[in-house]
């Protein structure tokens, strides 16, 4: 699959962005356009997932996958925290913040995986979109608990921003369009399919062009990355993704969905979690968690991770 | 000539996700209004940032508020403890305000 | 029809936006993206209307519909003004400003109505786009006259911003693309149809998502809405829409076009008229007219009004 | 060291649709230039607003102009009568301008 | 062809924009939307060109066309410089800056030409996209040399911004998506074709609407345009375009590609070159070069130039 | 009350393509940070411009920097020779900065 991946326009546009930024080109994607594309992508996968679930109904399999996703998001940060403290030499606060990112998920990594897997004839189940939405937030709670363990409540105590976390934009949009897809069903979806289905892969190309630019700029502008942290930003996706793929296989998901769960586990948040950390742990250094998740793990997952966990799921399944 | 009154022009450069917290502090010390100025990018000791890097978490915004001396002093006292962890930049200048009695 | 309406993705996205804003989610649609979508929507309906008229030519029916639209836009503010003064207890200036909004029209309400009506097999005539454009401005003149009646010209007299009103963006764009559609005809349109036709409904979904967010935020942030004003913001669409539908039926429009005229009459402007009022009546309070038209009447028309006037047109037709 | 001259820094926060009127006033009093600064959102006694709420009518913009004392005084006199109905906020500060003879 | 051109929606939208700006309408296209469209257009033509070349392979014909494009871009500024000094009475610095614009190319003019020519059954070869990319920068070097000839290096010498010029956004994007198209081939392109092919012409309409607005505003706000300069801004496209078409015919290009080379030669840059001039020749007046290229030559080429060089290529071929 | 220190507030209005050059000058004189403020449009003797006119070459940006008196003087000396050809506008005002020791 890796050969197919590397000649897919989706991935090639990501590489183009990365190279352009590395050459210090002035190519940039306007912020509003990038946000528009990400809103489009989330609405589209939400709708498609909902439409599929409207056909199957809510099955026990869905409940099990949801529970597995929640459990992974809650627990993966614990292992990550240990590695970040031990190998990464990070402070408790920074390690907790980073761990939260790796327990949570990246929507774009998931969307890219769906496209690439589907291109290989491996379509993950529609309900995986719901699992994606469920996995966004639990890791934040675990990460904050780890960061604050043993901390005495002195000064202005920063409380967990429950409200911001639970109503964050991507959760609202994913869950909302999932529900809309489920209500509208195939018939209702038909009328909006030309926009949300036909154009999807092309938009993903342009969005990954931007992500390539951003990932490379983040890497180059960062002053906080040590070799240890780069190593961890590759190790953590490998470890988490392997755990996720195994869990997916064990609970009986089909091969494609098990691979998707692996990729969700491997992926690291770079929108919802950083925003929450800025509010709840302002003393944690954004230079560390953003550089790791956006600058290293995101490119790694897009280019290698997806193929790796697809292969693993096939080997196990 | 039209009457003007002296007021403070407060500029707080802060991470965009933290703006609601700062606005909360402004309200708490009875400053009646604020405006958010769009900052495209910047650089400092922690490196450079751009507004357009998907993750809103690294964007910064300027909170601009015109306030009386008293309210300004109260605001500074309220915000100062946060300056370090929030990575803020707080400046205060003198301005004349036309019909400024309401500030 | 109301049941179909409420399970249509178009309306469900509006509801999603409304709910997200009510929950104080940080979901927002970038301004540039929203403007891009509204430019797209106006160009698309203008083109489609023009192409249809290129087939039929300018018929007497079109002239009658145009005259009816003009008359409604000129006269509806008079009734609205009386109600706003009497029931709403508004000052003359505020009542005039609000009346202008209700005499004018909302492009998005019209576009949504076209989509929903067409989904029910009720396609309004293509020339209704021209009627829409004609109805945008006359109400501004009436509203300003009502607001200024008996006012002595003291201080810096604010003159009617004729130029701004006549060349406002949506009039230019609607009329312009209508003319382009009429010149290009079906053949010329064919080459741009994939963009302007196929994607239309999907874009409308995302645009209404934004409108839901905006309407709810407007309602929540407003400090000017009294119960009386909320009541009027529902009464005025009902009254105006009923008048519009009756007029449409009486002058002999087909059922779908009569319903569309009703919806135009019921809808309230929230772009062109507020901008004109800010210039011509700066002392009128934007908190009132925007909250009424955008916060209450817009959602009411989208969710209920369209179905109501469709039913009325069918009952009368 | 390079020569600087004292000038006024005028900031006018005003509804975006009214900006052309303000620019007209600037020209009328011979202020040679202006720049419009993007304001994302704000809040005051009349509630809060965001730039991105489709209806441009509630957006605000900052008109920034550097001017001499004389022109500044003339501008204030010209604009003051409009302050209330237009809901403007007008502040004037002191700055040093490099090569500022042309303002 | 000129009659077809003038009733094509693509051109009519340009005219609409021009008229709206001339009437001082407040119609504007958000900057982010315009940039998004230009990124889309460049990615789309790059991809399509690359896919075509992936079929033909790199032929001697391609090498010859590339060499001709490079030579034109290097040499056309010399003639332009002479005319700008002689007829235009410009200073050496301003004449050099303007000459660089006319030696370089305008991507949008090229894209519009491709659409209009293809509509007439005259499809230029796919490799012309590569020629377009090659022609962007050499003219900058010639222009700077002309502007600085005999200049003593006093004060802060402004060096040629090599890096900015070679990695400028449009070169990166055109070359990058050309390469992606060549790697992905027809099969890889199939999956993104719905976005990059089907919607192309519609997007071009909206983009030219914006270009019409911008060209007219530029003309109206400029205080630097003399009649001589307006005359030159029409003469230079005619001269350069004629040379380009003849060269294309002489080196044996098919009629459509010869016309395309003519249009490339006729077109003037208004993005890459102005940015480079601002850096390398800050004392040159942007009011002159932008008003000439964007305000006069661009509209002239779109409305007349394309048809003229198509006719010339047919006459010669 | 919290301690404040006097600093200079430097505002440089400059063509967007030239911003990297200005930032280079700031770094050269040891000014530790800067922020770029978004300017939508403007007008002056050379006519009017809008940010949204495809050719980025006519857009302008404000470079905002807070600096000590010494660094400000050095910056002015470094930038003054460019003012004319670059068409810049450079103003310097006085502000109080909270926890400003680092500037
Ligand atoms: N003290 C202030 N400082 C800065 N901006 C203000 C202030 N007061 C009001 N504003 C701005 O002016 C707008 C209108 O204020 P108001 O008329 O009080 O609602 C607010 O939404 C803010 O954008
Ligand atoms: N007095 C001023 N105050 C604020 N901005 C100015 C002033 N003069 C010029 N500008 C800005 O600088 C740009 C170029 O000015 P000019 O060189 O006079 O055309 C204008 O378009 C404005 O954006
Ligand atoms: N001296 C300064 N003047 C203006 N903005 C600054 C200054 N120092 C820092 N900033 C802004 O604050 C951000 C964070 O600064 P720092 O914490 O030094 O990395 C920078 O990216 C700039 O946007
Ligand atoms: Na994860
Ligand atoms: Na109406
Ligand atoms: Na050329």
Helix-strand layout with pairing:
The complex is a heterohexamer, with 3 copies of chain A (317 residues) and 3 copies of chain B (103 residues).
Chain A lengths: L1 H5 L2 H14 L8 H26 L3 H27 L5 H12 L3 H13 L8 H8 L2 H11 L13 H5 L2 H22 L2 H6 L1 H22 L5 H24 L4 H12 L5 H9 L5 H31 L1
Helix pairs in contact in A: 2-12, 3-10, 3-12, 4-5, 4-7, 4-8, 4-13, 5-8, 5-16, 6-14, 6-16, 7-10, 7-14, 12-16, 13-14, 13-16, 14-16
Chain B lengths: L3 E12 L3 H10 L5 E11 L2 E4 L9 E8 L1 H11 L3 H4 L2 E10 L5
Antiparallel strand pairs in B: 1-4, 1-5, 2-3, 2-4
The structure holds adenosine monophosphate (3 copies) and sodium ion (3 copies).
One sodium ion binds next to helix 5 of chain E.
Poorly predicted runs of 5 or more residues of chain B: none
Task: Let me know the number of strands of chain A.
Answer: 0
Q: What is CATH's topology name of chain A? A: Na+/H+ antiporter like fold
What percent of residues of chain A adopt helix (DSSP H or I)? over 70%
Write the CATH architecture name of chain A. Answer: Up-down Bundle
- What's the SSE pattern of chain A? HHHHHHHHHHHHHHHH
Q: N-to-C terminal Cα separation of chain A, in Å?
A: 16 Å
Domain count of chain B, please report it.
Answer: 1
Q: Give the DSSP E fraction of chain B (strand runs of 2 or more residues).
A: 35-45%
Strand line-up of the largest beta sheet of chain B? 3-2-4-1-5
Distance between the termini of chain B: 20 Å
Oligomer: heterohexamer
Question: Share of helix among residues of chain B?
Answer: 10-25%
Please give the count of helices of chain B: 3
- CATH fold topology of chain B: Alpha-Beta Plaits
How many domain modules of chain A? 1
| CATH C-level of chain A | Mainly Alpha
């Amino acid at each position: 699959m890796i050969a197919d991946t590397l000649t897919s326009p989706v991935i090639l546009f990501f590489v183009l962005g990365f190279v352009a930024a590395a050459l210090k080109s002035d190519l940039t994607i306007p912020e509003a356009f990038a946000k528009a594309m990400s809103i489009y992508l989330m609405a589209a996968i939400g709708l498609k997932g909902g439409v599929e679930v409207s056909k199957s109904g809510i099955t026990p399999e869905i409940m099990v996958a949801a529970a597995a996703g929640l459990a992974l998001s809650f627990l993966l940060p614990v292992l990550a925290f240990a590695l970040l403290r031990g190998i990464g030499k990070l402070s408790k606060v920074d390690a907790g913040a980073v761990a939260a990112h790796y327990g949570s998920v990246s929507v774009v990594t998931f969307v890219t995986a769906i496209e690439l897997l589907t291109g290989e004839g491996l379509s993950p189940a529609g309900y995986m979109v719901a699992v994606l939405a469920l996995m966004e937030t639990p890791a934040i709670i675990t990460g904050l608990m780890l960061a604050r363990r043993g901390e005495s409540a002195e000064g202005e105590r920063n409380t967990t921003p429950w409200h911001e976390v639970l109503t964050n934009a991507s959760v609202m949009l994913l869950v909302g369009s999932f529900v809309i897809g489920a209500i509208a069903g195939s018939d209702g979806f038909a009328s909006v399919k030309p926009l949300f289905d036909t154009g999807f892969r092309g938009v993903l190309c342009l969005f990954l062009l931007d992500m390539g630019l951003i990932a490379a700029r983040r890497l180059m502008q960062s002053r906080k990355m040590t070799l240890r942290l780069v190593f961890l930003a590759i190790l953590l996706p490998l470890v988490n993704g392997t755990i996720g793929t195994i869990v997916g296989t064990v609970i009986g998901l089909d091969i494609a969905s098990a691979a998707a769960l692996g990729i969700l586990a491997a992926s690291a948040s770079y929108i919802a979690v950083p925003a929450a950390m800025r509010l709840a742990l302002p003393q944690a250094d954004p230079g560390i968690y953003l550089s790791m998740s956006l600058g290293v793990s995101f490119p790694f997952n897009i280019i290698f991770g997806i193929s790796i966990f697809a292969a693993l799921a096939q080997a196990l399944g | 000539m039209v009457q003007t009154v002296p007021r403070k022009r407060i500029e707080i450069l802060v991470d965009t996700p933290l703006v609601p917290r700062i606005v909360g502090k402004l309200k708490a010390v009875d400053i009646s209004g604020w405006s958010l100025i769009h900052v495209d990018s910047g650089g400092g000791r922690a490196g450079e940032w751009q507004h357009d890097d998907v993750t809103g978490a690294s964007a910064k915004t300027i909170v601009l508020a015109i306030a009386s001396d008293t309210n300004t002093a109260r605001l500074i006292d309220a915000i100062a403890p946060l300056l370090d962890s929030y990575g803020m930049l707080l400046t205060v200048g003198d301005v004349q305000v036309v019909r400024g009695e309401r500030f």
